[in-house]
Request: fold
Amino acid sequence: MRAEFVASEVGNGLRRNLTMTLAVIITVAVSLSLFGVSLLVRAQVDTMKDFWYDKVEVSIFLCAKGSDTPSCAGGAVTAGQRDQIEADLESLRPLVQDIYYESQAEAYVRFQEQFSSSPIADSVNESALPESFRVKLADPTQYDVVASAFSGRPGIEQVNDQRQVLDKFFQLLGGLQAIALIIAVVMLVVTVLLVANTMRVAAFSRRRETSIMRLVGASNLYIQLPFLLEAAVSAGIGAILAVGGLVLAKSVIIDQVLAPSFQFTSFVGWDAVVGIAPILILVGIGLSGIAAFLTLRKYLRV
Amino acid sequence: MILFDTVTKLYASQTHPALEDVSLEIEKGEFVFLVGPSGSGKSTFLRLVLREERPASGNVWVLGKDLSRLSNWKIPTLRREIGTVFQDFRLLPNKSVFENVAFALEVIGKPKALIKKVVPEVLEVVGLEGKEHRRPDELSGGEQQRVAIARAFVNRPKMLIADEPTGNLDPGTSVGIMKLLDRINRLGTTVVMSTHDAQIVDQMRRRVIELENGHVVRDQSRGVYGYVR
Reply:
């Protein structure tokens, strides 16, 4: 195998077919960018889940005076009911990690803090606010266990899971990710078709050379390798552009636009980008290599 | 060298076989003319030898190998031992004479040093010394066919297959090409040549195999062209 000869064939092929080469580079870059973005969104969702699920808790609101749910028909929660609820929560360990009791007085202080600049703060008095147990779960996805054990019990007004609110948000992000992924898959299909067609044209435009190569006994590898390398080189360039786009998205859109304006949550780090980059390059080169190989098998037969 | 044992070749689109029940043997060092009208099966015969086609039935042996048992990846090795020349020369127009001949060696992975040594040698054999840097379009038809023969011969094949090599050339030029093929044959290479050129066959007085409608109708050791077109 003479590397120099193969390399010059590859260079000639890419130059001779410049428009097709550019088309392959651009579609690979665009489709892989979208693919990378969808992977990045998923990494972002995972990061946010880690961040938020550590903080979310299940709130068990106890009946206060004037609560109108059926389980509060007996009026405000009694000391006995409260102790029983606490004991039952204790029995759910280790699923239940931390139990924190918030009295009406504490609830009132927190309420005043949260709405300090709002006129609502003055209109609420201490007895209208429910006392509650704030429960932190070892595994936040096991919320149903707690909910089914406590909701509807006498003395309990409501069981609230903060995770449900977050899940709506995550669903939205998941939807965005799915859209990006669908577009990416469609674009990747387009890329594969384009590579196949490019190879067909390339094989046709060099049929003189390849027919002579066959006649003088060049091996299949020798005949096909320049074509395969052409496909791989243009896909590789496209993939590198896509990685560049991803780096740009991380350093500009995330680090300079999103992160300063949404400081309450954390964003994906560079480790996610570093993890995605080789995937993009492998997918790009792999897909176009396979497309080229299958096409050439048809057009460059022994 | 070549052994056909009751070979039949039927193309999918045709009802009449291109070759039917053909048995013949060509020995090492022979010079054989393959004659017959268009469509008589000459090209099919040559394609079977090169394993570009497979017979419907019967066996083809080339250079001691049973082609029906030759696996695909060994075909290139077979073709390295067979040089091929065509009526239309099949040169690469954007390469010089030297590069066209060198191409045949490059694509089978021969080292550069060897190429630099053997290409000028073979160009001398075919009488093209001094024209290494010309392009095919700067050469006459006869010279182009010499380049093609140089390319076919540069790897010193055991056999040379020529499919109407003088078909595009005028009689004077054809004589030169035949002298060259004769010289290559005398260097020990088996030559199988299909042709329509009666004058050449009659002059050379070599073995003649005549095909008609896919059958061997004549096989003479020192034959003439024999039939009227």
The beta strands of chain A are 58-62, 96-102, 132-137, 156-161.
